[in-house]
Amino acid sequence: MRFLTLAACVPLALAHLVSYGQGGVILRDRDVSESALIDALTPEPKFRTRSIQVSPSSDRDSPVKQASASMLITFETSSAELKPQAKTMLDALGKAMTSNKLSNFSFEIDGHADPRGGAQFNLDLSQKRAEAVVSYLQQNHHIDAGRLRAVGKGQTELLNLNQPDAPENRRVTVKTLVN
Q1: What distance in Å separates the CA atoms of residue 111 and residue 73, rounded to the nearest whole number?
Q2: Whole-prediction pTM value?
Q3: 158-168, pLDDT tens digit by residue?
């Protein structure tokens, strides 16, 4: 199974999104909607014209665009318990995942942590956070367990290198999985 990533995932017309140097865009509170998530997570086929191939990624064997969404799902320090604000955002994600456009796809839920604490602690914490999101989607939106995979990334993929303890480094990324 091959997973595709692209944090820049909604139309650039949404200027109120926060953008970071590594090409990432984080969907924050009011920016998270069912339609924005469907747009972000729906893979699009690459185009082929005779011998010229137009592709948004460097992976020539991939039949689809990269698709993912980073959401600023926040947690209390050293906690994997979802806040009410996070649940509201996950409700939009659950609706998007059950939409006609996304109902046939599986997803990887990546938990991220900032570098406070030890590397192993952060890896375990980010795994628990990803599992909390998966559990919420399964219990509240009846997403089949086979469609969701929780992966803890720890502190390995910081978006804001200038401020390592910034909230955007404590995020959840949803990636569309493609066989």
Answers
A1: 9
A2: 0.74
A3: 888 999 988 88
